[in-house]
Amino acid sequence: MAEAQAQQRGGIADDGFAEAKSGVRYEVDGEIATITLARPEKRNAQTFATWSALARIGESLPEQVRVVVVKGEGPSFSAGIDLRMFTSEGVPGQGSFSTAATLGDAGFEQRIRQAQAGFLWLRRPEIVSIAAVQGHAIGAGFQLALSCDLRIVADDVAFCMKEPALGLVPDLTGTKPLVELVGLAKAIDICLTARTVHADEAMRIGLAEQVVARGDLEQAVSDKVAALLSVNRDAAVATKRLLQGARQRTLEEQSVAEGIEQAARIKALFG
Ligand code: ACO
Questions:
Q1: 221 and 251 belong to one structural domain
Q2: How many structural domains are present in the chain?
Q3: For ligand 1, what atom is nearest to the CA of residue 81?
Q4: Per-state percent for the chain, helix, strand, coil, to nearest 5
């Protein structure tokens, strides 16, 4: 495991996204990858370097990985985008919103797509991603949790989509999963009031799969990881593909898709 960790950490560092700059730590242990936001003294505030590091992890994720855990060190999962982005100085070496405002449309779109790439890969059918969320998950922090397949949360969790309160929109891939999880009316309520959603409500409206005491979060996540790893890998990938496509297909189309996936399974198992 130590060797794998060293290799993976080295990979990020070699690409210029060392932990010190990105605030991201990355470890691979067999079929499990763990991504840790590791700037607790700044409540795991996120920068472009954070999102670049996340994207690099997605690009280089070893094939054997089946479960990805995303967590944050310290009292908060993540306090969202680094507030220095709102200042004229910005984040050293990464600019500010003022510098972003000078980009042309194509340049701006490219920058946002680069940031979003750090989030999008967490939905791949080949993996199941779990956000382990304690304390504040604000703005980009909330969206990072939303980009994962599952959310296991501590009883002190505080989700807040603060972007509209700051004059922004949530643009780190969070709006679609939010609407799909809680419905349009509740998503409007949460985003357009920038209010905080606590553990009981998160569980009730489908933002969280499980709420546990703060001290039990790590164990709850590791139990879930073990359960996910206990099922057949290829069946898990095919089933996730089916579930992800279900909303876009008619019942008839979904039934056909089930048949196609099952034929491949039966052939693989018994052919
Ligand atoms: N960016 C940069 N630094 C931050 C951020 C942030 N988003 N959040 C907290 N910090 C820093 C604080 O400045 C402070 O630094 P200092 O010790 O050098 O003064 C340190 O982290 C601890 O912050 P506290 O506020 O003292 O921590 P506390 O636990 O009391 O509160 C909380 C945590 C509620 C998260 C609070 O820090 C907060 O409201 N942060 C800002 C949240 C925000 O507006 N984020 C932007 C959302 S929009 C988006 O993400 C696109």
A1: no
A2: 2
A3: 50
A4: 55, 15, 30
Calculated CA dihedral for residues 229, 230, 231, 233, nearest 10 degrees = 40
Q: CB neighbours (10 Å) of residue 114? A: 13
Question: What distances in angstroms separate CA 174 from CA 80, 88, 179, one per listed residue?
Answer: 12, 27, 9
Please tell me the residue having the least CA distance from ligand 1 atom 1. 82
Both structure tokens of 233: 């890998």
Q: Are residues 251 and 225 in the same domain?
A: no
The amino acid at 245: G
Between the CA of 43 and the centroid of ligand 1 the distance, in Å, is: 6
Which atom belonging to ligand 1 lies closest to the Cα atom of 168? Answer: 51
Q: Tell whether pTM > 0.90.
A: yes
CA of 159 relative to ligand 1 center, distance in Å: 14
Our answer on whether the CB atom of 166 is closer than 6 Å to any ligand 1 atom is yes
Q: Please state the atom number of ligand 1 nearest to the C-alpha of residue 80.
A: 50
Regarding whether 213 and 237 lie in a shared domain, the answer is no
Distance from the CA of 229 to the center of ligand 1, in angstroms? Answer: 36
User: pLDDT per residue over 196-233, tens digit each?
Assistant: 999 999 999 999 999 999 999 999 999 999 999 999 99
The CATH number assigned to the domain holding 43 equals 3.90.226.10
